[in-house]
Design brief:
single chain, alpha+beta, D-Maltodextrin-Binding Protein, domain 2, four-stranded antiparallel beta sheet, three-stranded antiparallel beta sheet, 11 strands, 28% helix, globular
Length: 241
């Protein structure tokens, strides 16, 4: 089970590295992606299986992918949800929700194969497999909200969803439950880094559609931690391994 400090460092790396990718010029760089030099971290001890982590937080209102924008909000999302990839201490993408991926057509097309054992785990013990459709659902929602421009703007169909002319990203294709294919407007050699951002983690469609209010207060995610109790506004958030 990843320890909390490593999750925080991974999130900061993701935000910094993705921001660097987003600042590249529109002409691209032949699909090779930017060179990112993130800080390094010193590993710490693994937590006990029953560890409860409590964060003091400020201005935390949204703790689900696609809604969270502040650093504190994204830190919480990073603990509760696992995106397709994660960054190691050198800033290189490693398998997370995606067990493997391929860069195709010079970086204009990416295919992600999801881990078969990935699960959304609810506080009530309910477990549901995480599928490619859950990732697509989360990305479509993030694009429609307009909060993911610097992450998804290169995905085919983003403009249509962001402006309300379409409801789905045409470039995000669910091949089957375990396979997600992403088509980009131009080559992007570091898209596997982009998808490490917590804003692009999957959402359980069944939970979101059944009770959005409950999901916002006690999100059900696929990450290493679960909510220990509902959010206490302006005070703290407790999660447990």
């Amino acid at each position: 089970m990843p320890w909390a400090g490593r999750r925080v460092v991974a999130l900061l790396l993701a935000i910094a590295a993705v921001a660097a990718v987003g600042c590249t010029d529109e002409g691209g760089n032949n699909g090779q992606g930017p060179v990112v030099s993130p800080p390094t971290a010193t590993p710490g001890p693994s937590p006990a299986a029953t560890e409860t982590l409590r964060w003091a937080v400020e201005d935390v209102e949204h703790i689900v992918p696609g809604d969270a924008t502040s650093r504190d909000e994204l830190l919480v999302v990073s603990a509760l949800f696992e995106p397709l990839t994660r960054l190691d201490s050198t800033g290189r993408p490693q398998p997370a929700l995606a067990r493997s991926w391929e860069r195709l057509d010079g970086g204009r097309r990416w295919r992600f194969s999801l881990a078969d054992d990935a699960r959304f785990v609810g506080q009530d013990g309910d477990q549901r497999r995480v599928t490619a459709a859950d990732v697509a659902f989360a990305w479509n929602r993030a694009a429609a909200k307009g909060e993911a421009d610097y992450l998804l703007r290169d995905v085919e169909g983003y403009h249509g969803v962001a402006t309300g002319q379409a409801s789905r990203l045409s470039g995000v294709r669910v091949v089957d439950d375990s396979t997600l294919e992403v088509h980009l407007r131009r080559p992007h050699g570091a898209f596997d880094l982009v998808v490490s951002h917590p804003s692009l983690a999957p959402l359980p469609r069944h939970r979101w559609r059944d009770d959005r209010s409950a999901m916002r207060q006690r999100p059900v995610g696929n990450g290493p931690y679960r909510m220990a109790e509902a959010v206490v506004p302006d005070r703290y958030i407790r999660v447990r391994a």
